[in-house]
Design brief:
single chain; 273 residues; two-stranded parallel ribbon; globular
Length: 273
């Protein structure tokens, strides 16, 4: 697809405010000489303000072309919500985030199976004063003992000094072994506990949710997830952070048959230094 094709499609909908993109390959760079012709602008009476951008799991080849094009008339990026499935280390993600410093309210980042969290080193949300909800999603379905854990997340979270931030959601797809205990080594839990404890002290209005999608076999029950999370987030809980756990079966083909549970983690009675 060329930018001209994409432009022609989008401008068929003058009230367009939300874009959901995936599986698109822009096979030509943006032509710097491509301007909107006078006869094309006659039917466009106002700017097309894009407030929502969703980049799906199929990804986009040539996202930089999209960003440059959406910065031209008749478009204007004034993003309030960005949902991005990170299937590779795409630097344009942070271009989008930076462009939306003054408007972004909801940011959802889904980290693909083959992507580690090192790309978050470049993530800086310190100027996003309106950010209300942040979701970080991970798939650990194929995680096995000895795999490298995600270690950058604590540093990323420690930079979240945002007065408007009210919801932090950590979404995880986890496998439940039939006979062995669940593996929890996919994070550096001591470092994550320290970062969340700092957030609890600096942002007392913030609430954290661990949203677990559990891949379990037919007929088996949801294992204990409250105990392991309470043990690993003890200092965060002692610092006053309210942490909610939502656990549900991952049954894409039978969603109505999936069971689940939801509760707040209990506050420990003793401190652990």
């Amino acid at each position: 697809m060329t930018w001209a094709d994409f432009w022609a499609l989008c401008t068929c909908f003058p009230s367009l405010a939300s874009l959901e993109l995936g599986g698109i390959h822009f096979d030509q760079p943006l032509d710097s000489t491509l301007d909107v012709k006078a006869n094309d602008t006659a039917s466009i009476t106002a700017l097309m303000i894009i407030k929502t951008l969703v980049v799906g799991v199929l990804g986009i080849k040539g996202m930089a072309t999209v960003l440059r094009g959406l910065s031209r008339y008749p478009f204007e990026l004034r993003l309030r919500k960005v949902s991005w499935s990170c299937t590779d280390d795409d630097p344009t993600l942070f271009d989008v985030i930076k462009l939306s410093e003054q408007s972004l309210e909801h940011l959802y980042l889904m980290v693909g199976k083959r992507v580690d969290d090192s790309f978050l080193r470049e993530g800086d949300l310190t100027k996003h004063a309106r950010l209300h909800t942040l979701l970080l999603g991970f798939s650990f379905r194929r995680f096995v003992a000895g795999d490298k854990p995600h270690t950058v997340i604590p540093t990323f979270l420690s930079r979240l000094h945002l007065e408007c931030l009210r919801r932090l959601i950590i979404y995880m797809v986890l496998s439940v072994p039939r006979t062995e205990p669940m593996l929890w080594e996919f994070f550096d839990w001591p470092a994550l506990d320290r970062s969340l404890a700092i957030l609890a002290k600096n942002q007392p209005a913030l609430r954290v949710t661990f949203d677990l999608s559990l891949c379990i076999r037919e007929g088996e029950t949801i294992p204990d997830v409250v105990g392991p999370l309470t043990d690993r987030l003890r200092n965060t809980l002692l610092a006053g952070m309210r942490i909610k756990v939502v656990a549900k079966e991952n049954r894409p083909t039978r969603p109505l048959a999936a069971s689940g549970m939801s509760c707040w983690l209990p506050i420990p009675h003793d401190a652990v230094e």
